[in-house]
Design goal:
Layout: H1 3-19, H2 23-40, H3 45-59, H4 63-78
Helix pairs in contact: 1-2, 1-4, 2-3, 2-4, 3-4
Length: 80
């Protein structure tokens, strides 16, 4: 997958986040997505660190903020 593909996955998670249900499973899904992106894309170390911080944000109970951080990172990587 590339950064644009991950943006589509993130959009799906964003819709789930808006529903307010299943917050714990959403937090885990966001953290897993951040891990998957960090492992599958060839990223500079700073972007990998930013993804890990977004993961920590999700696990800290702020999935909405984590989604925004991951989206910003993916857009920067994709050149959008």
């Amino acid at each position: 997958m590339n950064a644009r593909d991950y943006l589509h996955v993130l959009e799906s998670l964003t819709r789930k986040a808006g529903s307010g249900r299943l917050e714990n499973s959403l937090i885990i899904a966001i953290a897993d997505l951040a891990d998957q992106i960090a492992l599958s894309l060839d990223l500079p170390p700073i972007e990998r660190d930013r993804l890990l911080m977004a993961r920590a944000t999700a696990l800290g109970g702020r999935p909405d903020l984590a989604i925004a951080k991951i989206e910003t990172i993916l857009r920067r990587i994709a050149g959008l």
